[in-house]
Queue: 2 jobs
Job 1
Amino acid sequence: MKLRKVLACRAGALALGTAFLVAGTIGVKAEECETITLGAAISLTGKYATNGYHTQNGYEFAIEKIKENGGVQVGGKCYNFEVLYYDDESKGDRGATLAERLINQDGVQYMLGPYSSGLTKAIAPVTEKYQIPMVEAEGASRSLFNKGYEYLFAVLSTSEQYLASAITLAAQVAEQNGKKPSDVKVAVAVENDPFSLDIRAGVLEDASKYGMDIVVDEKLPRDLSDMSAILTKVKLLKPDVLIVSGHSKGAATAVRQIGEQNISVPLIAVTHCEAADVTGNFGKAANDILCSTQWAETLSYEDPIFGSAANYEKEFKAAYPEYAEKKVPYQTAQASAAVYVFKDAFERAGSLDKNTLRDAIAETDLMTFYGPIKFSENGNNIAKPMVLRQIQDGEYNVVAPAEFASHKLNWPRTPQ
Amino acid sequence: MDQIIGNLDLLFEFPIVNLKIIIDGVMIGALFALAAYGLALVWGVMNVKNLAQGDFVIAGGYTAWWLVQQGIHPFLGILAAFIVMWGIGWVTYRLVISRVIQRDLFTSLLATFGLAIMMAQILNLLFGSDTQSIQLDYATFHFADGLIDVPAAKLMGVVMAMALAGGVILFMKRSRMGQAIRATAQDPRAARVMGIDTEKIYSFTFSLNAAICGAAGAIIVMAWVIQPFYGITYSIRAFVIVTAAGLGNLPGVIAAGLGIGALEQYGSHILGIGYQQAVAVLLLLLLLLARMLQQRRQRQVLK
């Protein structure tokens, strides 16, 4: 009980800024609306605390925005969302216990997801057991979506899509230059951990779809500080695409040594560019490298609640001034999108029954500021592509998917 | 398997790649040799097998990295890391090592193992778990159609490592302190009888070891990358090198350091980069086996 109070207090403080902004508009209306309670175990302490906090802010911001726009209309009645948070301390077993508690003791009927694939993996069996629909925004591992879960839905792109879009891009470029996609040669270097191996699986799958040739396929060690052996092979075998994924050490080592060794692969795609701060650390060597992200504020996606992606960024910063100096993280945007999915599904279901709601969520076909959302049978979002940004003169500019991009791709990449 | 054969083919198809592998290996090997020399010193003089060796390297790297963030020149960072790590080495000796030095092998192994875990975690808390590096905007020299590249930063790092090693050798040979250290290594009791304050020698030796490691770390952060948990990779290499070369054999330590650097690069080229460290560990295993057989024949005791 005490914990709940503290958390409610904290959430209240977070939402305070927003509350001030919208107080005038909601006024009487909010009083008339009833409340739908969603449950969430979220990492407010421990190793995921920073991102857990981003996620919670995303949930709270969306709830305020929905309230501002007239709440959720279910069967002629008006509702507002409220979230009951517990701190899972970034631990899987704690997350699972808290999910049980939310469902059994607090009687929560609908769940928002925790932060990270690991926590989602721990909680999903619980929500599945009690048939509680959960819309999650922060678990990308594809192992979440091959277990046959029926009550788990994710708005984000799964991990095997992270760099697969680079393969699609390479195929498009090859066609524009009058070559066949099957002539493209691909080099892959990923770390030997579940996340990076997912990425590799996605890349290899798409590459074999186009009939591309994999000329280098190496696993990076956990304590990587030198990958010149791989880059030498890249120099000899001259691939058209180089894919590197190894968390921030992979990005840092790759970008540094690509610069040192003058690697001239026309298209290089990497994950974790921001975490490694490749532009700040390595300057020009990072130019024209492609980095994947779930979302960027310069995309031309739009919806009636949040407006455009740029508008989301602007209004979120106004509500949460601590983000004013930095970019709004995509973790926040996708958390907001998850709440939006609930609103949309409740209104289409026209009922508060969790099974009717589950079916409505499964039929979601929604355009949001975060991107299109449509779930596969396994619950992952198949409509939203991963976004590729290219580092152009030290700036991250969106270059793919082409229809929503703000900038043109620099191709071929020239060594700097 | 196909990949391994393909990689071998590349070596024969482009023989110049062999040269590149050896150059890369020698450059990193020079840094391994520094850390190994420090280990040989402490092992030989105090009979302490310091498992925190690699963590001293990483701590030195972070010292230099942090100071460069504050605006000092990277080369001064090496000097600063040497001095700061000297101090940390001295404190560590007073707090931990002096208490375990007379005990048996396992006590000192456990103590330094605990030290290694603690240092890594403290660095993680202080600096975060992201990799860090210092980018020097020096040119990279390219040879043989760009296949061989020697970044000036790495070259300078190796030169400085060599200068440091040379300095330490001279110091050990010429100075009174160096003589006293060698005397203590040969026979601590006799040294005490001759009026050498062995306690002072021990704390000096351990501080010197930490300082050498610190300087090596400062060079590593300029040419490669560091992360709080990378210490173990340098510890393992230092042990392999000292085992291969033996204690008190400085030319041997340097040769073994360079050789292991090159062998690892071959391993990562042929077997894949994931097996780079496996090559070092495999080597340690083979060496220990060879040593054992050798000793059986000669009836010697390895001190």
Job 2
Amino acid sequence: MSGSSSQGRLGALADRWLPKLVLSPTLAASLIFVYGFIAWTGWLSFTESRLMPRYEWAGVVQYQALFENERWWTAAANLGIFGGLFILFCLLVGLLMAVLLDQKIRAEGALRTVYLYPMALSFVVTGTAWKWMLNPDMGLQKVVVDLGFTDFTFDWLVNPDMAIYTVVIAGVWQSSGFVMALFLAGLRGIDDSIIKAAQVDGASLPTIYRRILIPSLRPVFFSVLLILSHIAIKSFDLVMALTGGGPGNSSDVPAIFMYQFAFTRGQLGVGAASAMMMLFTIVAVLVPLMYMETRSAKRV
Amino acid sequence: MKLKRLSAAVLAASLFPVAAQAADVEVLHWWTSGGEAKSVAELKKMMSAQGVTWKDFAVAGGGGDNAMTALKTRVVSGNPPTAAQIKGPAIQEWGAEGVLADIDAVARAGNWDKQLPPVVSRVMKYKGKYVAAPVNVHRVNWLWANPEAFKKAGATVPKTWPEFFVAADKLKKAGIQPIAHGGQPWQDATLFESVALGVGGADYYNKAFVKLDKATLAGPTTVKVFETLGKVKTYIDKGAAGRDWNLATAMVINGKAGMQFMGDWAKGEFTAAGKVPGKDFICTDAPGTQNAFTFNIDSLAMFQQKNPAAVQAQAKLAATVMSPAFQEVFNLNKGSIPARLDTPMAKFDDCAKKSSFDMSAASKGGKLVPSFAHKMAMPSATEGAMVDVISQFMNSNMTAQQATERLARAGAVR
């Protein structure tokens, strides 16, 4: 009798402590390697660090240098253009594809795979492939010109004013399938009886989508926004592979700026300051989103 | 049993890491491509002939960026390599971190001050003491031309900027791309610096890009430089964006383009394609830069060693790098010229001979200037800011006046 009760107590103890014990290494790792290094970067951004870290307090000189740097503002503006258009088009294209696939069509599984497949590629592959396709001398432009349309030009990739939009094209191509999958899952999760009831009331299919289905996808919108906005802000590999930040530095983004200043130009302080600015941007986007999300969840 | 021995060995290795590297030299470099790797192998041979074991620490890629990251990690962890491939003012930056070794004794014994042009030896010293040894000199202000293309267009290889534009127009009319260029920031800067030296002369170049004199940078000469560069820009094809320099050289080799502004490493591409200097391709000074010489010097900076045996090995390394035998064989393989003025040049080709002759002449005439596009002239922060302005000028319709103002502002970045 007493044996089984002690076993029960032991079991209860394990129930209480085992999850914490198992989680503690990951907790410690993320405390050190994520938050610890954020704090370290933050500290470096207030020092005179050049080639190597130095730890004397220097105030906000690095932020001043950053804000006087025209290239930083180019990068920030590009992030605005890229981030805004990338998120907008991913949402639109993804939602449209999800709605169309939702019509109980034939070979849906195959189609879904086709649209999802770009997600399996890394951004470097996407960037390199699109670089070849958009190159005026051997890609799309050459194909159309060879077809006989001799005055066709599509030179966005080498045009400093348009290069950032090619990044949007490649980014949307890669990510919209993933957005579609999320929306499709959301649509499938909606109770069929609601749709049936609306149909009985005589609502047309577009009205059902517009007034009932899409509004009920609200939580999915939040998740998609969360994922897309952080992909946009930290985007580095796609731009590096597609345009290399060029021509010149016309398609520069903050992540590339940060890498170059911190690691190739020996201005660790400015690099750290720009990394902190990126962090603030992410926080500025995500905190309101998460706040709204939790509030709406509570209301329901 | 085996396991025990293995673990004992691991333990011993971890306990006595210093003893193991007693007579070793470990050299961090990124000379990994064909001719360069051959050059490094020579150094390895010479070191082992003196009983010093060579530990190769090659980190390829990124134009040395990857190697620099590796170096920082090693220095921060208190275990720096014997020497690392560092050049230009970066030597001063590492010196300021207090990690470089004083090799003045070796330099005095070898009489380095006599062997090197003063502009060069200044780069190798930190606070008056030698901390680095030069391995080679690249000349940057070259113009590479395809004589066949020039003949077809009825043009002559230009010596001045007015002649240059005449020739470029003729090439264009003959359906040949006048200038092969790659739209990468460092290539834009390479082109800019040749234009600046040609238009403004060595005095202007020194004041503006070495002393970073604000009035000179903001002055009318800089406007003229940008105006010329803007005109040069119109002879570059649209496909240049992001093109690698060797692809641009290939355009000159196969006659698609007439000329290219590039340092003497371009010669390797020509010779690898079986072309003969003077016959199949022409190497000449960039327009208006006769007798002037922009140099790009690779050097090995020496890091402080704790172990006395390692210090001795380091001294041997430094002396070997500066020996005429090494300077000759290394540069024959790499396509550059020796940093030592007294190295025999008999085995070198015509372009290298001209380069070496011009270097001595330019050194005497005070026209030997460091290349800032190749990180030889100014702190890396300033250089980066200037290259940003230049590449923006190349890729937008910024006016020469605006570019000058921005360049002057970039010159104040430290």
